[in-house]
Every structure is written in C-alpha cells, then in structure tokens.
Design goal:
The protein has 184 residues and is α+β, with helices and mostly antiparallel strands. The protein is built from four helices and eight strands; from the N terminus they run βαβββαβββααβ. The chain has a single domain, classed as 2-Layer Sandwich (Alpha-Beta Plaits), CATH 3.30.70. Helix content is 24%, strand content 25%. The chain starts with 18 loop residues before the first strand and ends with a strand.
C-alpha cells in the first residue's frame, strides 16, 4: 500500500518525505534477548514506520565505556522508512527506552536494559545538542558496523567514502563481536 494511502497522522513539517532510518539496539541488563525483541516490536509498530523493516542478526559484545564488571551486550540494527523528521523519531525511541525500563536520568554509558541510537536518517547531516546525524561514533564501533553490514553492506553513510562493508573490513578497534542469534 503506498504511504500516502496509509491512515494516520502526518506531520506538516518540511521533513515529511519518507527516508530510510537506521537504529542500533543494545541491551546488557535483564533478559537481553527479550529486551531487543520488545524494542524491535515497538519500533516496527510506530505510526510513521513504513516497510520494508530490516533487522540484522544479534551479536554479543563486550561492554565499551561501561562501569567495571558490566555484563556483555546483545546488539542489533534495524532499518526502515520513516514518514516524519529525525527529531520525531528520536523522541519516539526515547519513549520506547523509558517504557522498557531505561531511566531518563541514567549515567552516560552505564549498563542498561535497552539502548536505542539513531544512526542515520537518509543522507541528513545534523549537529545539535539533542541530535547528531550521522551518529558520531558508529564507525568506531564494531558492534554497530557488523549488524549494519548484515542489512546494508553497500550503504554509504553520510561523511564516508566507503560502504559499511568496507568500513567493517578496515575496523581495527577493540572488542569481540560474536553472532548470538540469526532469527529473533
């Protein structure tokens, strides 16, 4: 069904054109797999998400920048069409985080039941206090590049001259990323 015939509210801002959005998902507290599954379901159910919705395999990774003795993370990535602006999507992702038990007043990089990061929104480049697109550290994190390569290996991210698959091949940073589950 074309997006224009899908019922529901539409934004009147200039950003109503659908764009592919990439989101990283991570969890290292509680039932990590259940947390990712619930987040995936909540994201796919957002009013402005349009198919196709792509999801990577899930990878288990060492925590980066977390407190000492933090548990391992499960990480994945999703991509979908979004029929509103990136600020709207960022707000929706924050609501999902809170609904899944993440405190809004959490310390940066602390262990968490769910972490949802907006990685990119089409080719937009945004630099505000609230939102930076593309995500400034995604090319420095194998736990982001590897899942993203599952769903978009040929994607050229804004500010990059190589596709995601090449960025992953050239990655030399720390941390082991191990495939945990293909279907979730």
């Amino acid at each position: 069904m074309p997006a224009s015939s899908v019922p529901g509210p539409r934004s009147t801002t200039a950003a109503t054109t659908e764009m592919r959005a990439g989101v990283a998902l991570g969890s290292n507290l509680g039932d990590r797999l259940a947390n990712l599954r619930r987040a995936r379901k909540e994201i796919a159910a957002l009013a402005n998400v349009r198919p196709p919705v792509r999801a990577s395999a899930i990878y288990e990774t060492e925590p980066v920048g977390c407190e000492e003795d933090a548990a391992k993370f499960l990480n994945a990535a999703m991509e979908f069409e979004y029929e509103d602006g990136p600020q709207d999507l960022l707000r929706e992702l924050a609501k999902i985080e809170v609904a899944l038990g993440r405190s809004a007043s959490r310390a940066r990089n602390a262990s968490r039941s769910i972490d949802l990061d907006l990685l990119y929104f089409g080719r937009l480049e945004i630099e505000t206090e609230e939102l930076q697109l593309p995500h400034p550290r995604m090319t420095q994190r194998e736990f982001v590049l590897r899942p993203l390569a599952d769903i978009r290996p040929d994607l050229f991210l804004p500010k990059q001259t190589e596709p995601v698959s090449a960025l992953l091949l050239r990655y030399t940073g720390p941390g082991a990323v191990v495939r945990f589950a293909g279907q979730w």
